User: Which sequence fits this backbone?
């Protein structure tokens, strides 16, 4: 088994273990996008999730730059990731510069952000469309078939993570779970904002502080974020913990 195959096996074992153990869905999907970016021939990954009205929201991203681009795409209501969700099919864009007529707002913005290609993969549960997993590259070119298959496998794991406690499709129950996941993401963004403001941090730095504290104290990420927003856990406590961890490593 090659190193890449071992890495893929390790990641899927970890993800399935997290599913079995009921890990926080925001934490799991954030990990999943990070592993996508690491294992596939892409620079970063983002995950869009639809609410019960079919409106897409950013659920997870491997970088703040990707999250901002996904938000821009949704605000302008154009782009390959949105189109992939609407069509329920994969969309490959090997050269964004050639697609400015197709997406006159998204394509130039993505290029300015440093991306040159995008590959959007559908998330679904049978006939129900859940969202998309989106892979952003900084160079022009298609993904090879093996990477496309692996990316779709990641999208399928994300779909299962969102509806893991249902053995049959119950649209009402699934919509409730999806809305709960989206609400968790909103709370996480609010907690990042609290830490960023208090600690003078960038949003991605605030997320690292939040995630580190949750992991070091065996807390669910969403639960911790909720406590930070409600001021039940002071932001200064998390910032102090992050500084202590940094100091202990130097």
Assistant:
């Amino acid at each position: 088994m090659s190193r890449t195959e071992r890495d893929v096996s390790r990641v899927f074992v970890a993800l399935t273990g997290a599913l079995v153990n009921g890990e926080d869905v925001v934490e799991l999907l954030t990990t999943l996008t990070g592993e996508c970016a690491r294992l596939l021939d892409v620079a970063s990954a983002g995950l869009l999730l639809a609410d019960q009205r079919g409106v897409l929201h950013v659920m997870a991203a491997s970088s703040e730059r990707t999250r901002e681009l996904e938000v821009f795409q949704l605000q302008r209501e154009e782009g390959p990731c949105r189109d992939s969700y609407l069509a329920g099919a994969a969309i490959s864009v090997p050269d964004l510069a050639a697609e400015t007529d197709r997406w006159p707002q998204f394509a130039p913005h993505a290029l300015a952000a440093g991306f040159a290609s995008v590959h959007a993969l559908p998330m679904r549960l049978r006939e129900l469309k859940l969202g998309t997993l989106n892979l952003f590259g900084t160079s022009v070119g298609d993904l090879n078939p093996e990477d496309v298959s692996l990316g779709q496998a990641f999208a399928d794991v994300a779909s299962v993570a969102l509806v893991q406690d249902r053995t049959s499709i119950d649209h009402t129950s699934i919509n409730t779970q999806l809305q709960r996941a989206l609400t968790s993401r909103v709370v996480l963004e609010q907690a990042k904002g609290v830490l960023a403001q208090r600690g003078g941090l960038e949003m991605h730095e605030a997320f690292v502080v939040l995630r580190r504290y949750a992991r070091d104290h065996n807390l669910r990420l969403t639960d911790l974020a909720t406590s930070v927003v409600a001021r039940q856990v002071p932001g200064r406590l998390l910032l102090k913990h992050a500084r202590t961890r940094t100091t202990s490593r130097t």
